[in-house]
Amino acid sequence: MPRLFGTDGVRGLANGEVITADLALGLAQAAARVLTQGRHADQVRGEGRRSRAVIARDPRVSGEFISAAVAAGLASSGIDVLDAGVIPTPAAAFLVGDIDADFGVMVSASHNPAPDNGIKFFALGGVKLPDEVEDRIEAALSQPKLAPTGAGVGRIRRFSDAEDRYLLHLLGTLDVRLDGLHVVIDAAHGAAAGVSPQVFADAGARVTVLGADPDGLNINDGVGSTHLEKLQALVRLSGADLGIAHDGDADRCLAVDAQGNVVDGDQIMAILAVSLQRRGQLPHDALAATTMSNLGLRVAMAQHGIRIVETAVGDRYVLEAMAEHGLGFGGEQSGHIIFSKYATTGDGILTGLQLAAELARTGKTLAELARIMTVYPQVLVNVRDVDHHALHGDAVIADAVARHAALLGDDGRVLLRPSGTEPLVRVMVEALEAEQAQRIADELAGIVRERLAFS
Q: What EC number(s) is this enzyme filed under (predicted)?
């Protein structure tokens, strides 16, 4: 039976086969059992005081019944619930630590379309759960539930100042004002629709807003970090200094310069890593980045004496590497950027603020700052319906990869990796020329298809 939890919680079609009210109720009850017992026992509040949890959601319509089921599962397990309503995922993580809650639950499917939804948990301090704790929660689905009665039942309360707490936290991370900057915010009709434009305005920026009218069904629909065309056009039309794009739950940030050119997560990391290093705020002169980060990031960081700790794909693995190596900064090409001084997870609003602050601090345009890194042409081919588990044991594929890697030398890179959720292999090639990268990727994809096709 496949594992219920994926790389970022449990996700699927809301009211479909996986994400149901029954599952939400059961997961909440199982999490209450696991996250307040065993090695998490230090979370339990002392005699006469119940454990408490923060729950939040993005604005998709299914989040209403799912979060209600989560709240019911927690309260029926003796957990006091603080319902923060619609706020970004990083806000939920922050609030868990800010009020010293025992854990948190976020109902969101991030950048996925509106019919999908998901459930993810944060442990004490607002950190993501390791795989082994998620596995314990999944196992607890079939175990007896905590079932207090009378005064032992948890209470459900509105977390009335949740957004204000988060907004003040974000403002507190800035060491400069944003006066004079014109910023376009694309909130993806998602969880950032209220707080992101507000915090930029409070920091002094002139703000133009896009994608900030969520109706429960339009989240990520033609807007946000996965659809940058409207943001690019509006930045050019309005003469703004930059555009900031979030995804549905606002844990990502991509940017657009004044000419409408996209500045992706790797470029944002390059800009901010060098800024942090210059200001003496980059521990060990290193950052964490995934195997999918562009070769240009590695070249640029080497030129500035900044080491890259490479991780598997997924911001949870970036976080784990940061904790293991004592790093303060890391992220992904997709725009999950993590500042461990301020956050326990990727925070798209925080990242956008810090990027805008670097414009204000240096007086440079975003286009000028982005020149710190040359983006190598990168081609990604997904080879579907193959035995992805057999990838690393195939000598023919290994020889082909080695041959092309040797041919590219320091001017390119080849990476093949199996999907963690479906039967496909991702073939990624970087080279100085896009045509060369495409040719090599297509050749390797053909070999993978031939070697790993299901018989």
A: 5.4.2.10
CATH of the domain at 393: 3.30.310.50
pLDDT confidence of residue 157: 98
Residue 454 confidence (pLDDT) above 90: no
What DSSP string runs through 373-430? SPPPPEEEEEEESB-GGGGGG-HHHHHHHHHHHHHHGGGEEEEEEE-SSSSEEEEEEE
- Domain extent for 392: 378-452
Do 261 and 408 share a structural domain? no
Q: Is 247 annotated as a binding residue?
A: yes
Q: Find out whether 22 is annotated in a ligand binding site.
A: no
Q: How far is CA 238 from the centre of its chain?
A: 29
pLDDT at 241 over 50: yes
Residues serving a catalytic function are 110
Cα separation, 233 vs 157, in Å, equals: 42
Q: Annotated binding residue at 264?
A: no
Indicate if 223 and 191 belong to the same structural domain. yes
The one-letter amino acid code at 433 reads E
Q: Does one domain contain both 258 and 336?
A: yes
Do residues 309 and 321 touch, judged by C-beta distance below 8 A?
yes
Both structure tokens of 335 = 């725009």
* Contact of 111 with 224, CB cutoff 8 Å: yes
Same domain, 227 and 284: yes
326 and 365 together in one domain: yes
Residue 409 has pLDDT above 70, yes or no: yes
The model carries a pTM of: 0.91
Mean pLDDT in residue range 5-9: 85
